[in-house]
Design goal:
Gate_dom, 0% strand, transmembrane helix, membrane, Spore_IM_YlbJ, mainly alpha, globular, 408 residues, Sporulation integral membrane protein YlbJ
């Protein structure tokens, strides 16, 4: 009976989506173009280098070397192998869903167990600094200093999620037994690096081609989800479902003394973080702190669009999606609370200090994230060109592979 209800629900949902596309073709097209612009201007060119380099680092054994060196840190804190430190760093630098892709890759190579992978993926998917400072703080709020509060809340909140998820699956055995008294051995790390490279007999050209092909395939999938959820978010608004859901969220926001006008931006952010963050920044009836708290939750929750991307990547392995989803809720709560805690010392006190003193620490200057803002503008201007050239190279690789298969 449960499966029949699920079947009917899914069929009705898809039918409603199709009918809405027919009824609102102009709005659907505009939303699709908006999602496409975000993908080919920013997401594709910013993530592609990280994905390719990550694949090569795994092939050459550098990840195994890092794993040996970081084992004494990652294992006691998060109960994951040392290679999780590499996934964590790359996830923070490149943004979601890089953490999920690398976690799935390590699981496929059996370097981590399924439970360790579920712990790892829960705190290695985060927004990258480029998006927090370039798009949100400068692009939407026109206030670079807000980026400091958002970034601190986001990344510290993610660490708290990792510490919390270490208790996930306590009864399941780890992939390897770890001696906590064991010391770091640089010699062992380089021996593991060398052995990993020797096991990989692929030519460098073949390795590079596979890395490019795998990375672009993942990014094409990400682009599809971004466009799909941009359209879905718009259609939900057009058929007034968003308005109905907002009535429920108004009561929830009122509990935390947040204005009801933030309910619709909040719901939009639950589906797609870019639109939700932009709508939140444009809400006139809320003060800056309230808007920053909601934006912080949206960034941490990461939206159903990103979660669908992660679910698609994890589906290729035995890693369950449910722990990741629960972790996103906790991350949103942690990030929102930390935003409230950090607001006075890192925004109000800084603004007051800036007004009364010309001597400002370098790492807290107003222009400290300026290079991120400049990089964001560079991607907006040249991102489409990078994307088109990369896709052309990808088509060339596929054509060469097809030619080899057809050659007798």
């Amino acid at each position: 009976m449960k499966e029949k209800i699920k079947t009917i629900f899914l069929a009705l949902s898809v039918t409603l989506f199709a009918v809405s596309l027919i009824c609102y073709p102009k709005q659907s097209f505009e939303a699709s173009i908006s999602g496409l612009n975000m993908w080919w201007k920013v997401v594709f060119p910013s993530l592609l280098p990280f994905f390719i380099v990550s694949e090569l680092l795994i092939h050459f054994g550098v990840v195994n070397l890092i794993g040996v060196l970081l084992e004494p840190l990652m294992r006691p804190l998060f109960k994951v192998p040392g290679v999780g430190g590499f996934v964590w760093a790359m996830g923070m630098a490149s943004g979601y869903p890089a953490g999920a892709k690398l976690t799935a890759r390590l699981r496929q190579e059996k370097q981590i167990s399924a439970i360790e992978a579920e712990r790892l993926v829960s705190f290695t998917n985060s927004s990258n600094p480029l998006f927090i400072f370039g798009a949100v703080s400068v692009g939407f709020f026109h206030n670079p200093q807000i980026g400091v509060v958002l970034a601190l809340s986001h990344y510290i909140g993610n660490i708290c999620v990792g510490l919390l998820m270490r208790f996930h699956g306590k009864t399941n055995p780890s992939s390897t037994h770890y001696d906590y008294k064991q010391k770091v051995s640089i010699r062992k790390a380089f021996r593991v690096l060398h052995q990993t490279r020797l096991r990989n007999e692929q030519a460098i050209g073949k390795m590079l081609g596979d890395a490019v092909r795998s990375s672009i395939q993942t990014l094409l999938m990400i682009g599809g989800f971004i466009i799909l959820f941009s359209v879905l978010n718009k259609l939900l608004y057009m058929i007034h479902i968003t308005d109905q859901i907002s009535n429920i969220f108004q009561y929830i926001l009122s509990i935390f003394a947040l204005p009801k006008e933030l309910s619709i931006p909040f719901i939009s952010g639950l589906f797609e973080i870019t639109l939700g963050s932009q709508m939140t920044s444009q809400t006139d009836s809320a003060n800056l702190l309230q808007k920053t708290i909601i934006t912080s939750f949206i960034l941490a929750f990461s939206g159903f669009s990103v979660q669908a991307q992660v679910a698609s990547i994890l589906a290729e392995t035995d890693i369950r999606f449910q722990p990741f989803f629960i972790a996103r809720i906790f991350h949103g709560i942690f990030a929102a609370v930390f935003t409230y805690v950090f607001w006075k010392p890192f925004y109000e006190d800084f603004q007051s200090h800036q007004e009364h003193s010309n001597i400002i620490p370098v790492f807290l200057t107003k222009h400290s994230p300026e290079w991120l803002s400049n990089y964001w503008q560079f991607l907006i201007e040249y991102g489409p060109m990078i994307t088109l050239l990369s896709l052309a190279f990808y088509v060339l690789l596929l054509a060469l592979d097809l030619r080899k298969e057809m050659t007798p």
